[in-house]
Amino acid sequence: MAKEKRITKAYELAKEVYAQYGVDTDKAIATLANVEISMHCWQGDDVGGFEAGAGGTSGGIQSTGNYPGKARNGDELRADFAKAISLIPGKQRLNLHAIYAETNGKKVDRDELDISHFSRWLDFAKKQKIGVDFNPTFFSHPLAADNFTLSHPDNAIRKFWVRHGIACRKIGAAFGKALGKPAVTNHWIPDGYKDIPVDRLAPRKRLLKSLDEMFAAKVSTKDNLDAIESKLFGIGVESYTVGSHEFYMGYAVKNQKILTLDAGHFHPTESIADKLSAMMLYVPEILLHVSRGVRWDSDHVVVLSDDLKSLAEEIVRGGFLKRVHIGLDYFDASINRVAAWVIGTRAMSKALLIALLEPTAMLRELESAGDYTARLAMLEEIKTLPSGAVWDQFCLSQGVPVGSEWIDEMKAYERTVLASRK
Ligand code: RNT
Ligand code: ZN
Asked: Strand locations in 271-365, DSSP E?
């Protein structure tokens, strides 16, 4: 049987199965087609960036592996990104970091950056018809060498980073304005101590002051949305993180900022899925950094794990698709980096599809009737419903490779493009 015919036939059968559970598969596909997933540029070059004389990643994050073919400049990174999104169904966004500025060899310090240094990225986003998100880079810089930035005790250094944050909010707004959809600008700092601090309060007071100063600068809220990201620990910053969860949760609630939940920034068995329904009562929106920690915040490539599925379920069940920004945040240098983007983004999209295919109304009825036996039994039964057939149909309708077909395309790209990078 011809491939397309087989996929459509399987889909028609799946559609009937789901209909028995009161689920409309066409509707699920139509909803998914409009969900944007923000893909992080930094997977393409191990969080390197293009600053002249860059001395590797600092700030307690680390990408491990030395798979050949890493993008070495903006053109290569854009080509790789374009290749990746051609293999992924649905809508994507491009998530940029300040260190990906292109300054034509000129030294432009972080507090002097503006949208002109991202004009090639803007052209790219326009051409690809995708939105852009942005991040100040509060690491990999001489003034971040001691792991303090916005909470630095030296006021001149602290102010430098405040200016960087403001510059980045303006860049986010410029992207948002030019593209007609707001950029989410996410602020994460690595600040903290390797060993046991005595004064846990003073750095937090300084961070609070810096955030207030940074957010006081007038930047269009129509074009730029500010998010703040907490963390538990980093490599070399194990004992104390200034921007802890409680710190930012408090700040976000008080100032109605977007709270960023990174899946790798909590205790190893703590899932961020449960946090959505709680935080959504107090903050306007949430930004997710979908990641996969293995034993620690290792930023492994996202896969279709139970954690990922629960996260997608909570977004869909809560009706939060419009208030949750979905961003990916991982960096693996041990496998083909372009494939890493495709694997993680397809997994995120698949998880959302499975959540959209859930017979939630039926499950809720069982729950409110107090029939927890049937609730558990049903949750188990629906795990093996034919979501794969719906996924294939989604890929087909989006004009991207179905099933494992994309792997061959990726191998060809590796042979013809990546292999020539030495
Ligand atoms: C670090 C944070 C942060 C970074 C990116 C590169 O632990 O997760 O989001 O990964 O900004
Ligand atoms: Zn993150």
From this structure: 286-290, 292-294, 296-300, 324-328
pLDDT tens per residue across all 422 residues of the chain: 799 999 999 999 999 999 999 999 999 999 999 999 999 999 999 999 999 877 778 888 889 999 999 999 999 999 999 999 999 999 999 999 999 999 999 999 999 999 999 999 999 999 999 999 999 999 999 999 999 999 999 999 999 999 999 999 999 999 999 999 999 999 999 999 999 999 999 999 999 999 999 999 999 999 999 999 999 999 999 999 999 999 999 999 999 999 999 999 999 999 999 999 999 999 999 999 999 999 999 999 999 999 999 999 999 999 999 999 999 999 999 999 999 999 999 999 999 999 999 999 999 999 999 999 999 999 999 999 999 999 999 999 999 999 999 999 999 999 999 999 98
Amino acid at 200: R
Three-class DSSP category at 300: strand
CA angle 403, 35, 27 (to 5 degrees): 75
> How many Å lie between the centroid of ligand 1 and the Cα of residue 91?
22
**Annotation marks residue 262 as catalytic:** yes
Catalytic hit among 289, 300, 325, 350 = 289
Please say whether the beta carbons of 18 and 25 come within 8 A. yes
Q: Please state the domain extents for the chain.
A: 36-384
Q: Is 223 a catalytic residue?
A: no
Question: 36-384: what fold?
Answer: TIM Barrel (3.20.20)
- In the residue annotation, 329 being an active-site residue is answered as yes
Query: Per the structure block, which two tokens stand in for 218?
Result: 């007038």
Could you tell me if the CB of 121 is within 6 A of ligand 1?
no
What's this model's pTM, rounded to 2 decimal places? 0.97
